[in-house]
């Protein structure tokens, strides 16, 4: 199958004006479309019409979009979703602005997953002909684009199997009760290509969002982002630090509605034949907070 990447996330916010200040001025996303109660954004290194949508009214993730290579991939995923026992419906071009026909799947965790193959290409801010490394006039952090998300579910093992069977993903790392074959899955990091994880799930309240993340270039960019968060009074949840899991560099922080964001850089490379990495409860603090090796209460209790 041809799932290439997470194409978009729709997130609910309580105050659209405050959220716009955060996502536009602090993170540096580009607004591309406004509708009543909604604003659509893209990062400077993204070429499709949008990757983040703010929806006024509440908190948490409203839905996720997944882009596939071919129209035929949508039909194959639809068939596999029915086989898995999921609720599936067709979505038509225009239901999401600048997004083509597709399907809408209710995952076992109750999260809404949309699959599509066509999106209006608006181009990267640096273009494609002899481009510069980055735009000259970035705002705030200047995030290049959406990277991944971590969602909560009461049964991470079931949701992991859903992504394996329906989206043809493979697991790069897993947090499990033991190293035994029949161990309980507590969290899982999954991908379709060489990106180390495009989606992850953790045991928690059903249908909730833990965070969604934006990619940055390196450790220096992570530190610079943390400085800007402090300047803009953005609540930092954790970091700057590094993960044992994924080997990425990170800062976790909150938008004005209380949705957790992350900026993430580096990380290991993923390949289908790479051995699965397993973490057990006695080492999970090192896996998440590699330096401090202590987990703050917010990280395991705050979901939206």
Word description of this protein:
The chain has helices at 16-26, 71-84, 156-167, 219-231, 284-288, 297-301, and strands at 3-13, 30-35, 38-42, 52-56, 60-68, 87-91, 102-106, 112-116, 145-153, 170-176, 185-191, 199-203, 209-216, 236-242, 248-254, 260-266, 277-279. It contains six helices and 17 strands. The strands form two sheets. Strands 14-15-16-13-9-12-11-10-17 form a nine-stranded mixed sheet. The chain is globular. With 304 residues, the protein is α/β, with parallel strands linked by helices. A hairpin with a 5-residue loop joins β14 and β15 (248-254).
Helix-strand blueprint:
Blueprint: E1 3-13, H1 16-26, E2 30-35, E3 38-42, E4 52-56, E5 60-68, H2 71-84, E6 87-91, E7 102-106, E8 112-116, E9 145-153, H3 156-167, E10 170-176, E11 185-191, E12 199-203, E13 209-216, H4 219-231, E14 236-242, E15 248-254, E16 260-266, E17 277-279, H5 284-288, H6 297-301
Parallel strand pairs: 1-4, 5-8, 9-12, 10-17, 13-16
Antiparallel strand pairs: 1-5, 2-3, 3-4, 6-7, 7-8, 9-13, 10-11, 11-12, 14-15, 15-16
Helix pairs in contact: 2-3
Quickly describe the structure.
The protein has 304 residues and is an alpha/beta fold. The chain is built from 6 helices and 17 strands.
